[in-house]
From TrEMBL:
This is PF04305 family protein. Pfam families: DUF455. InterPro entries: DUF455, Ferritin-like_SF, UCP012318.
Amino acid sequence: MKISEYAKHLLLAPNLEDKLLPPSRQWEEETEFTALRIETPGRSTKFQFSDKKVKIPRLEHLGLESNRGLSLHHFANHELMAIELFAWALLAFPLAPKSIRNGFLKTIEEEQTHLKLYLQRMREFGIDFGDIPLNYIFWKQLGQFGSLESFSAVMSISFEGANLDYAQVYAQVFSYFGDQLTSDIMLTIFEDEVKHVKRGLRAFERSVPDNTNHWDHYLSLIQFPFTPRRAKGYLYLPETRSLAGMDSEFIQSLGNYEDEYTGRVNLESVKKFGLGETILRKNRLDSHSPNL
């Protein structure tokens, strides 16, 4: 199988089982390098996108298993969209450097693992994927992906970057409520997301013009109404960006960024759970880890 054939399979397959097919260890040589931009993924009726808004449970309500299941359903939806969109990128940018394309394949495989972890734990909480309407926030950004660098700015630096915060927050809150199994799942995902952001940075940094800082280049690659608020959680944990190898000035600029959504987090919840006081880790992960 060729990488392009595999990417089409992930994008157009209607069911979850097919979208969880892992990448091959050996690929046939590509002979066609024409960019292909598929507008919507194939999905069965149960997994269609919905415009119905479903709120994620508040942190202080995660003592209930049902609310934990609802939260994981929300996260699982993000994983599925990420699988599809990194497959989309393999087709849209066929001339990307081999190292970047291999990084996308690694990311797809890790996102598939995340999705399987979420699906299993959700079902233990009595919720199956598709029981709740599925938003398509990642797919809504398709018009921004005009280049490999803009794709990386939105998907890796922004969405996956924000998940560095969210994975830490939920790992700590699940642990607070005594659910160490779900907390460990979030930490596994956190440490993979560090690698994902690092891979995205490689694609982003190769395009930074001379005499331009990373922050200004990032701003040039995203389009309003998408703003840097998408690149961080409601609680910003700059140490996680250092683990991913982000530029220190970029980390500071992102932390300083504010808009009308800034400050909406329930500060009493933050105080109650002690969030932001420390970063939880499972492995000895640092910004110089090899084999990412």
